[in-house]
Write a structure and sequence with these properties.
By secondary structure, this protein is α+β, with helices and mostly antiparallel strands. The chain has helices at residues 16-33, 69-75, 222-248, 251-277; strands spanning 86-88, 95-98, 101-104, 107-110, 119-125, 128-135, 141-146, 149-150, 164-165, 180-187, 194-202, 210-216. Helix 1 packs parallel to helix 2.
C-alpha cells in the first residue's frame, strides 16, 4: 500500500495501478501462450502474518477483511470469449453446425444428405487457424472460407475455391493404415482479432472427419527466441573481447617469472626428497 509503514519489502515495490496492470497482463499472456493451463495461484489471499509483514502487499483481502483493488480488478477481468491459442473440440461453444451432423467422442460426422447440406461456422481469435481432420480411404471435400473470403493455406480448384481433400496419402498404400488424423492448415497470417471460419462439406459421412480446431496467434516462441538470440550475441561479444584482450596481453612479461617460480618449486621439491631419502 502507498501508506505502508511496516518492514521494507524484499520484492521491491510498485504502485497499486502497476500491480493491477502487471497482474492482468499476466492473465492475458497466460490465455495467449499457455492455453493448456488449468488453474493459476495468486499469492496471497490474506497472509497469516503480522501487520508489518510486507506480504500484505500481495493480499487480495486486506487487514480489515475488505477486498483490495487488485481483487476487484481480477473479479471484473474479462475472460476471452472466443478460442485463442490451443486445440479445441468440435463441440466447442463457438462452433455452430447446420444441416445433418452426428457427434461422438470421435468428433463430428458429416451428414449423408445432398452436397452442401452439412455446414459449420467456427469463431475464433488469432492469426492462424487449422483443423484436426480424420482422413482415410474415402473421397470427400471441405470448402473453407475465412470472413467470407477463400482460405489462404489450402489448395484452390479451377474456380478459385479453397478446398481440403479428405483422402489420406496412405490410402493408396495397402501396407499402411488408411486412417490418419492430421492437423491441416486452413489460413495463416490473418489480422490479429476475431474471425469466422465457415466450412461446407461435400460427402464424407460415417468417417468422423472433424476431430478438432486449432488456433494460434503466430509464433508464440518469438519472445523466447529473441531472448536466446540476445544471450548468444552477448556470448559472442564476450568471447571477442576475451580474445582481443588475450592478444594484447604482454605474455612475454608474464611467462618468464612464472617459469622461474616453477623452477624454484621444482628445486625445492628435489631438496626435500633428497633429505628424506638420504
Amino acid at each position: 500500500p502507498a501508506d505502508w509503514q511496516g518492514e521494507p519489502s524484499i520484492w521491491g515495490k510498485v504502485t497499486q495501478d502497476e500491480q493491477i496492470q502487471y497482474t492482468t497482463q499476466a492473465l492475458d499472456r497466460t490465455h495467449r501462450e499457455l492455453p493448456w493451463l488449468g488453474a493459476m495461484i495468486l499469492h496471497h489471499w490474506q497472509p497469516a502474518t503480522t501487520d508489518d509483514d510486507p506480504q500484505w502487499g500481495f493480499a487480495l483481502i486486506d487487514q480489515q477483511n475488505q477486498p483490495t483493488p487488485l481483487l476487484q480488478a481480477i473479479q471484473s477481468y474479462d475472460m476471452p470469449d472466443l478460442p485463442q491459442n490451443g486445440l479445441f473440440h468440435p463441440r466447442t461453444p463457438t462452433a455452430r453446425y447446420s444441416g445433418v451432423w452426428t457427434f461422438s467422442e470421435l468428433g463430428a460426422d458429416i451428414g449423408w444428405l445432398e452436397t452442401t447440406d452439412s455446414q459449420l461456422e467456427f469463431e475464433f481469435e488469432g492469426t492462424d487457424v487449422a483443423m484436426l481432420l480424420r482422413e482415410g480411404d474415402y473421397v470427400a471435400f471441405l470448402y473453407p472460407t475465412i470472413d467470407d473470403r477463400q482460405a489462404n493455406a489450402t489448395p484452390q480448384d479451377s474456380n478459385g475455391n479453397a478446398y481440403v481433400f479428405l483422402r489420406s496419402d496412405s490410402a493408396v498404400d495397402p501396407e499402411s493404415p488408411a486412417e490418419e488424423i492430421n492437423l491441416i492448415p486452413i489460413s495463416r497470417q490473418l489480422s490479429q482479432g476475431k474471425h469466422t471460419l465457415k466450412i461446407v462439406a461435400d460427402k464424407g459421412w460415417d468417417q468422423w472427419a472433424i476431430a478438432g480446431f486449432a488456433v494460434s496467434s503466430g509464433n508464440l516462441t518469438q519472445y523466447y527466441d529473441n531472448q536466446i538470440a540476445i544471450g548468444l550475441l552477448a556470448l559472442i561479444v564476450s568471447c571477442t573481447v576475451l580474445i582481443m584482450s588475450a592478444i594484447q596481453t604482454p605474455w612475454q612479461d608474464i611467462v618468464p617469472p612464472s617459469t622461474i617460480v616453477f623452477r624454484t618449486l621444482a628445486s625445492t621439491s628435489h631438496l626435500i626428497i633428497s633429505a628424506i631419502t638420504s
